[in-house]
Each structure stands twice: as structure tokens, then as C-alpha cells.
Write a structure and sequence with these properties.
Blueprint: E1 2-4, E2 9-13, E3 20-24, E4 28-30, E5 39-42, E6 50-58, E7 62-71, E8 74-77, E9 87-88, E10 93-108, E11 111-125, E12 128-135, E13 146-155, E14 158-170, E15 173-181, H1 183-194
Antiparallel strand pairs: 1-4, 2-3, 2-6, 3-5, 5-8, 6-7, 7-8, 7-9, 10-11, 10-13, 11-12, 12-15, 13-14, 14-15
């Protein structure tokens, strides 16, 4: 089964242009890559604009490359797909919706400061997580320049505290790797991710 998680960063490389980074807006699943339905994405193109190129497709199993078309905020696989994912993820992942609160450390032109964040973890592994969150000012996106975040995540076994280093940040989504996880939380997380 091939799953493209919501919030995945997908890069479309078209001839004579820089790679276009897109964010998937909903989870899409199919038995094979060639059978994936159109993937809804956040795109800056206007209606009617059509782009064709090679897509770096991030799935729940790893990364692969396929020919794809971008039109009306929908990515569609159109070419022959490779037979398998070419890069395996080192850590098992679990999608879900786990409430989270914490503090983000931000570095921007105003200097370094702390901001409270609140949201949910939508994807987690023993290596890191995908967080959808906002700050207390009701702006529907996170402030730019988050370096790391201290999070308290409500998991099925209880609260887990972790420090997360930012890998990628777009709108209200933050993807990061664990810098530190409380010892008991790390053990429970490993059991949780292995118990699929």
C-alpha cells in the first residue's frame, strides 16, 4: 500500500524552471503508485495553468520519482512509475491526531524569542514528527524561523515530552526530528511505532 501523508513536501521539477515545492493537503492511498488518485496540493498557480515534470513523491514508505502533472491544485501521476520506492525510511511511522502544546524558539530579524504553540501531531516516528499548529494570536500559520520546539504530546499511553529540531516549516505545518525525548517516552514511542 502506498500512502502520501497530508502535509508531505512534494517537489515538482519542470524543464527550464526551478523545482516547485508543494504541500499535500490530504492523505492519499492506493495499492500501487500508478493507481494513486490526484493529490490535492497547496499551489500558487492560477486556474488553467498546467505543468508537467518529474515529481519527488514522499510516501509513508519512503521517496520515489514519477512523471506527474500539476493542474488546478491537483497533482496526478501520468507516466510509468518505478516498480518500488527507492529510499526506505529508517523509522516506522504512525499517522494519527495527538494533541500537543509547547514552546517554539524562533530566530528572525527581531532576534531570538519564545512563542507558545498549540495543535496536533499528525504523524510520528521514533525519529521525528509532523506537527500542525498555530500560536495564540489566531493567525492560521506558524511564525517563520522556528529553530526548535519543546512539546508535550498526548499519546495513547500518556503525555510525552520532547524537544524537536525543525527540518521543514510551511504555513501551519512543522516537520522535525527529535533532539531529545524523555527516557520513558522514548521507550513507549518505540513500542507504539513497532506495534502497527
Amino acid at each position: 500500500m502506498i500512502t502520501v501523508p497530508a502535509g508531505s513536501s512534494l517537489t515538482l521539477r519542470c524543464p527550464d524552471t526551478q523545482g516547485i515545492v508543494l504541500v499535500s493537503l490530504a492523505e492519499v492511498t492506493a495499492p500501487f503508485i500508478s493507481e494513486l488518485p490526484p493529490i490535492p496540493v497547496l499551489s500558487l498557480d492560477g486556474p488553467g495553468v498546467r505543468r508537467i515534470g518529474v515529481l519527488e513523491l514522499v510516501t509513508g514508505s519512503g521517496v520515489t520519482w514519477v512523471e506527474a502533472e500539476l493542474r488546478n491544485d491537483q497533482l496526478t501521476v501520468i507516466g510509468d512509475a518505478p516498480t518500488d520506492v527507492v529510499q526506505r525510511r529508517s523509522a516506522a511511522r504512525r499517522p494519527g491526531s495527538y494533541p500537543a502544546v509547547g514552546t517554539a524558539q524562533i530566530e528572525n530579524i527581531d532576534g531570538r524569542h519564545l512563542v507558545a504553540v498549540r495543535g496536533r501531531v499528525e504523524d510520528i516516528s521514533t525519529a521525528g514528527l509532523l506537527l500542525r499548529a498555530t500560536t495564540g494570536d489566531n493567525v492560521p500559520s506558524l511564525p517563520y524561523g522556528i529553530e526548535r520546539t519543546m512539546l508535550h504530546v498526548t499519546m495513547p499511553w500518556g503525555e510525552m515530552t520532547a524537544a524537536v529540531t525543525t527540518v521543514d516549516q510551511r504555513a501551519d505545518l512543522l516537520r522535525g526530528t527529535f533532539e531529545w525525548v524523555e527516557p520513558n517516552g522514548a521507550e513507549e514511542l518505540a513500542r507504539f511505532c513497532a506495534g502497527r
